[in-house]
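Troubleshooting entry. Yesterday's outputs looked truncated, so today I'm pasting the complete records for two proteins to confirm everything comes through intact. If either block looks cut off, that's the bug. Protein one:
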Amino acid sequence: MQELHDAPLAPLTTFRLGGPATRLVTATTDDEVIAVVRQADAGGTPLLLIGGGSNLVVGDKGFDGTALVVATQGVTLDGTRLELAAGEVWTDAVARTVEAGLAGIECLAGIPGSAGATPIQNVGAYGQEVSSTITEVVAYDRTTGETVTLANEECAFSYRHSRFKAHPERYVVLRVRFDLEDAGGLSGPVKYAETARALGVEQGDRVPLAAARETVLGLRAGKGMVLDPADHDTWSAGSFFTNPILTTAEFTAFRTRARQLLGPGTEPPAYPAGEGRTKTSAAWLIDKAGFTKGYGDGPARISTKHTLALTNRGHATTEDLLTLAREVVAGVHRTFGITLTNEPVTVGVTL
């Protein structure tokens, strides 16, 4: 277990932003993770958990407390059942399952971060969510001081949300268990229209697992969503805002407003999101509100490849990033009456 003091946090985040932590500890076993958490809790010390750093916005002043890097390792594959230690690199885990001929997370290729972060916000992309394959999450419960195993239904998964996200100060994810599908080397049914088009198949068709993974990686790379140190479009947290979910009345009002602004034939993106609820596209809202690809003239700008990503062009501060984010939120609300919600976790700052 490594311990540093007044240690920079920016290199541990994909934004490459943020000030130092008073104390930075790297834990490589579950017991070490639990020991650090217990010590912090017993002393009333603020605690920041860090995995891959791909969903963190750390303030310029840093973090006055203990920052814990969860660097645990361990992959167990038994038939279709997969168990990952929280510190395992998610993209590597996806590649392993594809090589093993197992379907269920192949369209989640290229998502940066650690395995332990995936259940927290129910990571999803290109028609798949981890909630559809997670069977159990092993976590340390800071309230009871015990290690607990929560079944899928106990995790309260929903769009980009879970029990763990609802109670961020309570649970520390240690291990995640999945049950995948052996479909004879084929992917799960291709659900996302863009993926189907890129593969040249119909939605619902299955394709070779490797083809599904490579296609998703290509689509993500084209949007700056695959980490590349030389590409400032990837100095981001991926999608900075979640797609808004609206009630029927809210969506009707939004569509009316969009048609008034953009023309009577305008049809905003609409996806079923449960009874009486419709999900629309944050990227569409941002673009139509005037924040196009590459928007901005400062050190923090919208990605040149995707309107949903806010980026550090190499010498930004966290305040630069937040100024841009606030401008986008205000502009979308002013134009369409919808308030965007940030997806990354903010530390020491608020949007």
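Protein two, checking that the full record survives here as well:
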Amino acid sequence: MLAVLALLLAPLAGTAAASDGPRVQLSKSQAGTGGSITVSGSGWRARALLMILVCGQAVPSRGVPGGTNSCANADGRAVTTDAKGRFSRKLPVAEPPVPCPCVVHVATVTGAKAEADAIFQVAGHAVEPLPAQTDGGRLSVLTDTRLDGSGSLLTWFGAPAARTLVFTVGNVGTSDVKNPVFQVGTAHGVFAPQWDEQQWRGTIRPGGKARIELPVELTGGAHGDYTVSLKYGGKVLAEQPWGVGRPWGVTLFWLLVCLVVPAALFRIGMAVVDRVRPRPAGGLRHRGLRLPEVALRLPGLKPSTAAHAATPTSTLPWFTPDADPGAAGGRLSAPHDDNPTSPTTPTREGST
């Protein structure tokens, strides 16, 4: 009787991890779409951020070969473990994009990689046999990964930062690996990596090794602490931190814009005001400088000569230049007759 009861409770436990590693338990081993189950676990790293997903075409012994592409990512949930490495989270049931057998997949998002799976059946979802597992070539990273390259002046002004992920892999399988397809992911902070598939052209024979170089590029203006991950065959092979500096050139550009544009507008405004303001009458009088004062200061001129030179000759419309009264040398007395025969002029004695 106790043996039968243990067999009945075993599916409900849903334990899918070794006793010495992370463990996952489910409140139900089967549920339909629209329902929910409670996922709990223990043995995880303290204060670790975990992602919980329902994945298809997977069993705990093989993990999730198709990666998160075979999981219901839109209905996943995140949870943080407590100080003792335990957690409990309600998970909505959703159909994965591939047929069952299915599992509830729990994996760390940041830090050291750890994952665990528990068998789960989505009621009403299609079930198909798992793809045959081939005993072909398997790649393993033999050396530490590194990022080659450096920034440039364009990167300082917000251009996309680019590096080359360099590593060496070895074929530990029994057959050749031809044109392997790697997945390179970049993650910023606590966000999940954004994966990009890149194919390496070449053949790696059993027991052989090859040096792989894959380009990595971020979006324009990206800065901060990033993590570059390498995945092959659904498993993460290596991770490499990447610290990207802030594009200070963009900040300098906007600072110059904030200084130059107001100064230019001020200059334009002053020019417009100077153009439209009314001019004072009198030509050059508004400059505060008069021509007589300039003439008095000329070297080599006596005050009387300077005053005479500074006095403009008047030309009246009813006088010709010859008859202009001002041309008479400045004589202001009334004209008189200089004829020697004038009665007012004395004559010498004995003149005729």
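Both blocks look complete. Sanity check on protein two: The helical segments are 2-13, 153-156, 248-276, 291-296, 303-310.
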